[in-house]
Design brief:
The protein is of the alpha+beta class and 261 residues long. It contains five helices and 13 strands.
């Protein structure tokens, strides 16, 4: 057999082996990697009103359809806010909601990248109770010079599903911490929440913001972003108050975003 034929055969065999190895790696990766929550289960961080220079409690909430027995996550605080410790300085102050826990225990520690890692388990593999609401609480300390709004982030969120003990990765979550009192939905500062605020928010999303647009008031959902979800929540605020009639009249016709309100 000619040398070049042998070399071609060796190269072909090498490529086949490489492809098989790559395929094996991909299969193993998907086998051991956590699945993503695809049913709307999520972590939420409600808007937090900061009282600078004090210790206060913040909440992390869970909305879920499936049952979970354990979880872990990392919380990243902005400059001016840090997790509080016990009087002896040994432990961070975290606690599980009584409405969600069974025999679960929770632990927390600041890890190498600066995040507060929180983990909760059940020694009997019990499921967390309920389908929505507060999951756990963190005591935090703010500096006297704190000025918001700033963002608190929750990352690397993993839950263990009760039914098959499989790891389920959740999407990252975030919330706003602010030292200023904000009337959510009142984006134009007239102390009312009505259809003019919706028009202004739509214009903001379309990159046509008004000069006095209040971003903090527009983030009604408190996730650090301004989008259609905030508009939906504004509509709920209006429909539950005295602006319901005005809203219905506006929806009865064409809402022109170029109108002066």
């Amino acid at each position: 057999m000619r040398i070049d034929n042998i070399q071609n055969l060796q190269t072909s065999s090498y490529r086949r082996c490489l492809r098989v190895a790559l395929l094996f790696f991909v299969i193993q990766w998907f086998a051991i990697s956590p699945s993503w929550a695809g049913n709307g289960d999520k972590i939420e961080v409600p808007r937090l009103k900061i009282n600078p220079g004090t210790t206060q409690q913040m909440v992390i909430q869970l909305k879920n359809e499936e049952e979970y027995t354990a979880f872990q996550a990392e919380i990243y605080f902005p400059e001016g806010i840090s997790p509080a410790k016990t009087a002896d300085g040994k432990n961070y102050i975290v606690s599980l909601s009584a409405d969600r826990r069974k025999d679960h225990t929770i632990s927390a520690n600041v890890v190498s990248d600066g995040g507060l890692k929180v983990a909760a388990i059940s020694m009997n593999n019990e499921s967390l109770k309920g389908k929505s609401g507060d999951l756990f609480y963190i005591d935090i300390v703010s500096e006297s010079t704190f000025e918001g709004p700033k963002t608190i982030e929750v990352k690397d969120i993993l839950f263990t599903r009760t039914s098959d003990r499989k790891e389920i990765a959740f999407a990252n979550a975030s919330g706003i911490a602010d030292d200023k009192a904000v009337k959510l939905g009142d984006v134009n500062g007239d102390n009312l929440v009505n259809v003019t605020d919706i028009v202004a928010t739509v214009n903001y999303i379309m990159e046509k913001p008004s000069p006095n647009f209040n971003e903090a008031a527009a983030d009604v959902s408190g996730d650090g972003e301004i989008n259609v979800t905030d508009i939906v929540k504004m509509v709920s605020i209006i429909m539950s108050g005295s602006g319901a009639r005005e809203m219905m009249e506006a929806l009865g016709g064409t809402l022109d975003l170029n109108d002066e309100w």
